[in-house]
């Protein structure tokens, strides 16, 4: 087993481990996180209702992935700044802009970016279809920003385990049991936090 590859500053909190099956280091991201790298490693996550965007510039050897969920509440735009969920209502935008900006910051070029989208499953039958809200958001975002969508695996009822190879854009997806209890509990907890706490981090430069 080799030493862990060096990560960019700011990603020290991301769990990274050696996976003997894939013979590679793996960075595991959780809901609300993202990770960008120039190293030959894998980025992984498990999404249920959430969506992950895998983004890479293979020409310049850099890529990243995020994991986000929109809140279920809808707030009129003129009320955003007057509510605790103001930032959360726009969380998908934050999640996308942060990972794209990081890729560009470390040498990627916007015209080279290629996206693959995963998640948005309806795994919580008793709740509003959060997965479809996430799908509608991300499709509209990609269309509005003029980004190059290479592939998607969205919707249905299944959680998905995603393995992303950020230097090449390759993605492996494994569909999991529809009612994976641990995934449901994690997403419920994340959603509760998302609806009650504004996002910290200030303004994001848009490209």
TrEMBL record:
<comment type="similarity">
    <text>Belongs to the CheD family.</text>
</comment>
<dbReference type="Pfam" id="PF03975">
    <property type="entry name" value="CheD"/>
</dbReference>
<dbReference type="InterPro" id="IPR005659">
    <property type="entry name" value="Chemorcpt_Glu_NH3ase_CheD"/>
</dbReference>
<keyword id="KW-0145">Chemotaxis</keyword>
<dbReference type="InterPro" id="IPR011324">
    <property type="entry name" value="Cytotoxic_necrot_fac-like_cat"/>
</dbReference>
<comment type="function">
    <text>Probably deamidates glutamine residues to glutamate on methyl-accepting chemotaxis receptors (MCPs), playing an important role in chemotaxis.</text>
</comment>
<protein>
    <recommendedName>
        <fullName>Probable chemoreceptor glutamine deamidase CheD</fullName>
        <ecNumber>3.5.1.44</ecNumber>
    </recommendedName>
</protein>
<keyword id="KW-0378">Hydrolase</keyword>
<dbReference type="GO" id="GO:0006935">
    <property type="term" value="P:chemotaxis"/>
</dbReference>
<dbReference type="GO" id="GO:0050568">
    <property type="term" value="F:protein-glutamine glutaminase activity"/>
</dbReference>
<dbReference type="InterPro" id="IPR038592">
    <property type="entry name" value="CheD-like_sf"/>
</dbReference>
